[in-house]
C-alpha cells in the first residue's frame, strides 16, 4: 500500500513536470564534477538537448498515424544517450535496426539524476514517462523498451509507475505508455538476488561495470536499497505478464576501472583496480516467467549494447525477438485461443461459487424497496457520486445478506447505476457472498478473486488473454498452480492497467465478518483459534485472534481497492470495532435503523398466510417487531414458534420468548431445550461432528460418521459390518433422506443440506453437503457453556469425533460406486477426483488420531479395510471396462499389467504425473501415519521387514514433489501428500527395521536434491507451498529435511559422494557435479536458523564446523 501511495505521488509530479523537493538532498548518480540541468518541456529543445538527457529520435521509418512501432533505448548508469549504443562509429539502433525492421522509429533516451529517498530510480522513471508521453502525443503505436544495465531498472520503474496510473486513474496521459508497451529487452540488468548476494549487492556489482566508476557512497546506497529493489521487481512481474521479455546476459568478463576501496566481491574481499573478472551475477540477470526468454551472449557487459556488424553475437536473436513482439495476431490465431479461454474459465470456476447467495432467502414482498428510495436511503446518491465504497452495517440477523441479494438482482438498481457512475463506461457487476460456514474457498481471498474474475471474463471473453497472457503459450494444465493468489492478483492488475479508460466494475462483497485468512491458519496456536465471548454488541457472538486478524486483512484489502476510481463497492458486515475504525470515512447505512417497518410487514404477511383470523394482529405485529430490535432472523424464528400456538397460549408464548438469539438463555437455547433428551444428545453429536470436520460433509458421510466407528452390539468396525448388507441407489438415497430429516428434528433447522446442483461431473456434489443455516447458528453451537446447561447431554471426546469422521469417509468410499464409477479411464486411468478426496480425508483424519488413539488394533484394521476396499474397486473397474474401439492389446497386455498395479499410484493430477506407490504403506508414510507404519512393519520379520523399510526410506527423506493433484481445485485446504516431508519419527522406525542409505546410494542423492524444494527460490514446490499454505508449513518441511540429512549421515551416508545437480529449463538447462558435503553447505549457508545444524553436520562429515557459517 505504501508503494502505491508513493507511486501515485510520483505520477502527479511527473504529470506536472516538477520534481520532489526532497530529491535535492538525495544521493546524486552523476559522475564526480558533473551536474544535471532541469528537464525542458519543449519537444524541439528535447530533441537537441546538449547535455545528452531526454529523448532523441535517431531514425523514423514510420508513416503518419498509429502504424509501425517505437523502440526506446535507455542506457545504463553513467552511459551516453547515443554513445552507449555505438562501436567503431556504428550506432546499431540507427544504422542496422532502422533498415532491418520496417516501420520502426528509434528513440534513444538519456538520463542522470538522483537516487530517490526510497532507494530506487523513481525520478528518472518519472522523466522517462513524461518525455515519452510528450513525444508520442500524436500516436498510439506499440512500444518496445531496451534497457542496458541499470537502465533496465529505470524502464521497470517507469512501467510500474505508468501501470499504477492506469489502475488508479491518475494522469492517464502518462499511464497510456503502459498499455502500448508490448516488449522489453534487458541487457545485463540485475532482476533478482544471485546466490548469497542480495539484489542490492547485485545492483552494486552491476554499477561497477559502468564507464565511470561509482562512488563508495552510491554503492552503499544500492546495497541498502535491497528491499526497495525487491519490491520493484515483484510489482513489475505483476504488471508485465502480457509484455514479452528477453533477458540477455554477457558471458565474457569486463575489466574494472576502480580503486580497491570501491570494488569488493560478495564476501567483502577487495578486488583491486583492473581486475578482469566482473560480470553481472549469473543468477540475477534473468528470472522465471512464461513470457520471459533468456539469452547468453559471448560478449562483455559493454558490448551487450553495441555492435559494429550484423554478424556480431546476439544481434540476430534480438532482431528476431523484436520482430516477433511487434507482430499482431491473425483472426485465425484469435479463434485458436477459444479452447484455452474455456480451459481458463473452467479452472477459475468452483462449484460452491453461487451456493451462499442461492441459500439466502429472497426479500419478503417489498420490504427492501426502501433502499432505492432517495428519500429514505443514501444509496441513490452514492450511485451518482465519486465515492468508491458504501458500507451496509448491521447486527447479527438484521438481514444484511438478504438486502445485498435484493440489490444484486434488482433491475432498478442497475438502471440507477447506469444513469449515474456507470454512464458512458463499460459496466460490469460481480458479487461475492462470503460464507464462514462453507468450505475454505467460500471465505478466502482466493475465492473472492476467482469468483469476480469468472463473472467478468465469462461475459468479456476477449479479456481472458489480457488477464492471463502467460497461459496461452504453455501446455495445459500449466506447470504451475493457476489459481495461486499471486497469479490471480496479476490478472486483476492486468485488466485494470490495460482497460482503465472505460472499464467500470461494481462489486458486492457480503459478509466481510465471515472472511478468514485460510492460507495462514496454521500459523496460529490452538488458543488463538479458540473463540472468546463478550456480553455486548456483535462481539457477543464470539471472536478469536484468527478471526480478528482476518477482519483486519479484509479491511485493508477494501481500503487498498477503494483508491481505484473505476471500481465501486457495496460491502456489508456486522458492526465490529475493526470495521468501525477501518470504514469510518465511507458512506454508511445502519441497517437495523431501517428494519422495524420491514419486520412488521413480514410478520403481518406470515400471520395472514398461516394464521388467518387471528385477533389484534396489528398490535401483535408491532410488538414482535419492537421485541426483535431489528433482528429479522429472530423475528422469523419467533413467528415459527408463535403460529403453532393456540389462541389461549399465544400471549404466554410471546411474553416468554427471549428477546435475543444467542447466549445460554437466548432463542436458540429455547429451541434446543424443547427437544427430548435423546434428540439433544443426537444434536450434540451431529453439531460437534460438523464443527470438527475440516470441510463441509456430505449427507452420506455425516450419516455414517454419526453412527460412530463401532457397532454397539458386536463391538466390530461398522465398515466391516457393511459387507453384510448391500447398498443400492435406493438405500443410499434413503440414508441421505433420513439424515436430512434428522437435521430438522434434532438440529432444529440450524443445519441444512445444500440445494445447489454440481455443474462438473468429476467434482463433489454440492447439493449434498451439510452447512449451518447461518453464521450465528455456527457461532452459538460452538459455545461450551450451552451444552453444560443441558444435563442430559454427554460430553464428546475430540478423538472419538475424529475416529467417527475417519469411519464416515471410509464407509462412504465403499458406497461411492453405487452412484458413479470411482475410477476414470479417459484420458488416462485414474481415481475420480471426488473419490480421491474421500481417500485423502481418510488419511488426514487418521493423521489426527494416529498418535492418540487407544484402540490401535481397530484403528489399523480400519485402514487395512480402506486399502482392501480401494483395491477391490480398482480391480472391478478394470475388469468391467470395455474399450470403445476394438483394442486387441487391452485383454492380452494392458489389462493384466494394470491389474498388478496398486490403486494408490493412480491419484488424479491437474499438473504432472501421479506419484508411484507400490502399496498403501507408501501412502501412509507420506501421510505421516507413524504408529500405523510401525505396526505394519512389526508384523513382518527378518529380511521381509528390512526390505520393506528400505523400500519406504526414499519416501521419508525425498518426497516426490512434482505435480499438483486435481483435488486442489475441489477443496481450498487440500494438502498434497507428495509435496511435504513426512514426520521425522518415521526415520527411527525404518532404521530400526534395517533400512540403510548404504544399501542404495540413490536414497542419499535424492535426499540431498530434495532440499532444493524447500530452500531454493526458484523451486516450484517452494512457491506452491508459500502460495497454498503458509511459511509455517515451509519451515516444518525445512526442519524435517535437515533432520533427515543428519540421520542419513549418522547411518552411513557418504559425505564425499558426487551428486549431479540440474538447474534451469529448456535451452538454459545445465548439469553440474558437486560433492555431497558442498551441496549441503550450499543449501544451508545464508540460513541463520540452521547455522547450528550445519556445524553439527560438518562435524559428522569430518570437517571442523565454524560458528560463522550463516551469512
TrEMBL record:
Q: Does the keyword Repeat apply?
A: yes
Task: Keywords in alphabetical order, please.
Answer: Repeat
Superkingdom of origin organism: Eukaryota
Domain Nephrocystin 3-like N-terminal, chain residue ranges per copy? 366-516
Region span, Disordered: 15-36
Q: Which residues form the DUF7791 domain?
A: 676-790
Q: State the InterPro entries in the record.
A: AB_hydrolase_fold, DUF7791, NPHP3-like_N, P-loop_NTPase
PANTHER family reported in the protein's UniProt record: AMELOGENIN (PTHR10039), NACHT DOMAIN-CONTAINING PROTEIN (PTHR10039:SF5)
- Protein name, entry field: DUF676 domain-containing protein
Q: Which organism is it from?
A: Daldinia eschscholtzii
Amino acid at each position: 500500500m505504501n508503494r502505491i501511495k508513493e507511486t501515485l505521488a510520483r505520477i502527479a509530479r511527473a504529470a506536472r513536470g516538477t520534481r520532489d523537493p526532497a530529491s535535492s538532498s538525495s544521493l546524486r548518480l552523476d559522475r564526480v564534477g558533473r551536474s544535471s540541468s532541469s528537464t525542458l518541456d519543449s519537444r524541439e529543445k528535447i530533441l537537441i538537448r546538449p547535455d545528452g538527457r531526454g529523448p532523441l529520435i535517431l531514425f523514423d521509418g514510420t508513416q503518419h498515424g498509429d502504424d509501425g512501432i517505437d523502440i526506446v533505448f535507455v542506457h545504463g548508469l553513467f552511459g551516453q544517450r547515443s554513445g552507449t549504443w555505438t562501436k567503431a562509429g556504428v550506432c546499431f539502433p540507427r544504422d542496422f535496426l532502422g533498415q532491418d525492421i520496417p516501420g520502426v522509429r528509434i528513440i534513444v533516451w538519456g538520463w542522470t539524476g538522483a537516487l530517490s529517498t526510497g532507494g530506487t530510480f523513481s525520478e528518472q522513471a518519472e522523466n522517462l514517462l513524461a518525455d515519452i508521453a510528450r513525444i508520442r502525443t500524436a500516436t498510439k503505436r506499440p512500444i518496445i523498451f531496451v534497457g542496458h544495465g541499470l537502465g533496465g531498472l529505470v524502464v521497470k520503474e517507469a512501467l510500474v509507475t505508468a501501470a499504477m496510473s492506469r489502475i488508479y486513474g491518475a494522469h492517464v496521459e502518462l499511464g497510456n505508455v503502459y498499455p502500448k508497451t508490448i516488449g522489453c529487452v534487458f541487457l545485463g540488468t540485475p532482476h533478482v538476488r544471485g546466490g548469497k548476494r542480495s539484489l542490492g549487492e547485485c545492483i552494486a556489482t552491476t554499477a561497477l561495470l559502468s564507464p565511470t566508476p561509482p562512488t563508495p557512497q552510491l554503492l552503499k546506497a544500492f546495497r541498502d536499497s535491497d528491499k526497495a529493489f525487491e519490491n520493484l521487481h515483484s510489482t513489475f512481474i505483476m504488471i508485465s505478464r502480457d509484455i514479452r521479455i528477453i533477458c540477455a546476459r554477457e558471458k565474457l568478463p569486463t575489466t574494472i576501472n576502480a580503486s580497491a576501496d570501491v570494488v569488493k566481491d560478495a564476501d567483502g574481499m577487495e578486488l583491486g583496480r583492473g581486475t578482469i573478472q566482473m560480470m553481472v551475477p549469473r543468477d540475477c540477470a534473468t528470472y522465471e516467467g512464461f513470457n520471459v526468454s533468456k539469452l547468453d551472449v559471448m560478449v562483455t557487459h559493454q558490448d551487450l549494447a553495441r555492435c559494429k556488424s550484423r554478424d556480431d553475437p546476439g544481434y540476430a536473436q534480438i532482431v528476431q525477438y523484436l520482430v516477433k513482439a511487434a507482430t499482431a495476431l491473425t483472426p485465425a490465431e484469435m479463434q485458436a485461443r477459444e479452447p484455452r479461454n474455456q480451459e481458463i474459465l473452467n479452472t477459475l470456476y468452483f462449484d460452491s461459487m453461487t451456493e451462499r447467495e442461492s441459500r439466502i432467502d429472497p426479500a419478503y414482498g417489498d420490504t427492501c424497496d426502501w433502499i432505492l428510495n432517495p428519500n429514505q436511503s443514501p444509496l441513490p446518491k452514492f450511485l451518482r457520486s465519486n465515492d468508491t465504497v458504501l458500507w451496509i452495517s448491521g447486527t447479527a440477523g438484521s438481514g444484511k445478506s438478504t438486502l445485498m441479494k435484493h440489490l444484486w438482482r434488482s433491475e432498478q438498481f442497475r438502471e440507477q447505476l447506469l444513469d449515474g457512475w456507470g454512464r458512458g463506461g463499460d459496466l460490469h457487476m460481480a458479487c461475492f457472498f462470503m460464507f464462514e460456514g462453507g468450505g475454505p474457498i467460500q471465505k478466502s481471498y482466493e475465492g473472492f478473486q476467482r469468483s469476480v474474475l469468472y463473472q467478468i471474463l465469462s461475459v468479456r471473453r476477449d479479456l481472458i488473454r489480457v488477464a492471463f497472457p502467460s497461459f496461452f503459450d504453455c501446455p495445459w494444465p500449466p506447470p504451475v498452480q493457476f489459481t495461486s493468489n499471486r497469479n490471480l492478483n496479476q490478472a486483476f492488475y492486468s485488466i485494470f492497467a490495460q482497460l482503465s479508460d472505460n472499464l467500470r466494475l461494481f462489486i458486492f462483497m457480503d459478509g466481510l465478518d465471515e472472511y478468514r485468512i485460510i492460507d495462514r491458519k496454521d500459523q496460529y496456536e490452538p488458543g488463538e483459534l479458540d473463540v472468546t465471548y463478550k456480553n455486548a454488541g456483535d462481539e457477543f457472538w464470539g471472536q478469536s485472534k484468527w478471526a480478528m486478524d482476518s477482519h483486519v486483512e479484509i479491511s485493508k484489502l477494501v481500503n487498498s481497492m477503494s483508491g481505484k476510481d473505476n471500481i465501486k463497492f457495496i460491502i456489508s458486515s456486522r458492526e465490529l470495532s475493526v470495521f468501525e475504525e477501518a470504514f469510518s470515512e465511507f458512506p454508511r447505512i445502519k441497517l437495523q435503523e431501517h428494519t422495524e417497518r420491514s419486520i412488521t410487514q413480514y410478520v403481518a404477511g406470515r400471520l395472514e398466510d398461516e394464521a388467518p383470523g387471528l385477533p389484534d394482529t396489528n398490535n401483535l405485529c408491532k410488538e414482535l417487531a419492537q421485541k426483535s430490535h431489528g433482528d429479522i432472523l429472530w423475528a422469523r424464528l419467533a413467528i415459527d414458534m408463535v403460529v403453532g400456538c393456540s389462541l389461549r397460549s399465544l400471549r404466554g408464548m410471546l411474553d416468554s420468548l427471549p428477546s435475543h438469539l444467542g447466549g445460554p438463555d437466548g432463542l436458540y437455547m429455547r429451541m434446543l431445550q424443547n427437544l427430548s433428551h435423546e434428540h439433544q444428545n443426537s444434536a450434540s453429536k451431529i453439531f460437534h461432528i460438523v464443527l470438527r470436520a475440516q470441510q463441509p460433509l456430505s449427507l452420506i458421510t455425516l450419516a455414517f460418521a454419526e453412527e460412530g466407528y463401532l457397532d454397539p452390539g458386536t463391538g466390530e468396525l461398522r465398515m466391516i459390518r457393511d459387507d453384510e448388507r448391500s447398498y443400492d441407489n435406493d438405500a443410499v438415497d434413503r440414508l441421505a433422506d433420513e439424515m436430512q430429516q434428522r437435521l430438522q428434528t434434532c438440529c432444529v433447522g440450524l443445519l441444512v443440506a445444500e440445494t445447489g446442483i454440481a455443474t462438473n461431473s468429476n467434482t463433489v456434489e454440492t447439493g449434498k453437503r451439510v452447512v449451518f443455516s447461518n453464521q450465528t447458528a455456527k457461532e452459538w453451537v460452538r459455545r461450551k457453556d450451552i451444552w453444560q446447561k443441558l444435563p442430559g447431554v454427554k460430553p464428546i471426546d475430540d478423538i472419538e469425533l475424529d475416529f467417527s469422521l475417519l469411519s464416515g469417509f471410509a464407509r462412504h468410499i465403499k458406497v461411492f460406486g453405487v452412484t458413479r464409477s470411482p475410477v476414470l479411464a479417459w484420458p488416462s486411468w485414474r481415481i475420480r477426483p471426488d473419490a480421491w478426496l474421500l481417500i485423502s480425508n481418510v488419511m488426514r483424519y487418521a493423521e489426527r488420531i494416529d498418535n492418540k488413539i487407544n484402540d490401535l488394533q481397530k484403528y489399523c484394521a480400519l485402514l487395512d479395510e480402506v486399502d482392501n476396499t480401494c483395491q477391490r474397486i480398482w480391480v472391478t473397474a478394470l475388469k468391467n471396462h470395455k474399450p470403445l474401439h476394438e483394442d486387441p492389446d487391452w485383454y492380452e497386455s494392458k489389462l493384466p499389467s494394470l491389474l498388478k498395479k496398486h490403486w494408490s499410484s493412480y491419484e488424479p493430477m491437474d499438473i504432472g504425473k501421479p506419484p508411484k506407490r507400490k502399496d498403501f504403506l507408501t501412502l501412509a508414510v507420506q501421510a505421516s501415519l507413524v504408529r500405523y507404519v510401525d505396526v505394519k512393519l512389526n508384523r513382518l520379520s527378518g529380511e521381509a521387514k528390512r526390505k520393506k523399510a528400505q523400500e519406504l526410506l526414499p519416501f521419508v527423506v525425498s518426497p516426490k514433489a512434482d505435480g499438483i493433484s486435481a483435488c486442489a481445485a475441489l477443496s481450498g485446504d487440500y494438502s498434497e501428500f507428495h509435496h511435504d516431508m513426512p514426520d521425522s519419527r518415521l526415520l527411527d522406525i525404518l532404521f530400526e527395521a534395517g533400512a540403510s542409505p548404504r544399501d542404495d546410494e540413490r536414497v542419499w542423492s535424492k535426499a540431498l536434491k530434495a532440499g532444493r524444494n524447500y530452500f531454493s527460490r526458484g523451486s516450484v514446490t517452494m512457491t506452491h507451498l508459500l502460495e497454498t499454505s503458509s511459511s509455517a508449513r515451509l519451515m516444518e518441511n525445512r526442519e524435517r529435511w535437515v533432520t533427515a540429512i543428519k540421520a542419513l549421515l549418522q547411518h552411513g551416508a557418504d559425505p564425499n559422494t558426487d551428486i549431479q545437480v540440474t538447474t534451469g529449463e529448456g535451452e538454459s538447462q545445465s548439469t553440474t557435479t558437486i560433492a555431497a558435503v558442498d551441496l549441503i553447505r550450499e543449501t544451508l549457508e545464508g540460513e541463520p536458523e540452521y547455522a547450528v545444524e550445519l556445524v553439527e553436520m560438518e562435524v559428522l562429515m569430518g570437517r571442523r564446523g565454524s560458528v560463522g557459517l550463516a551469512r
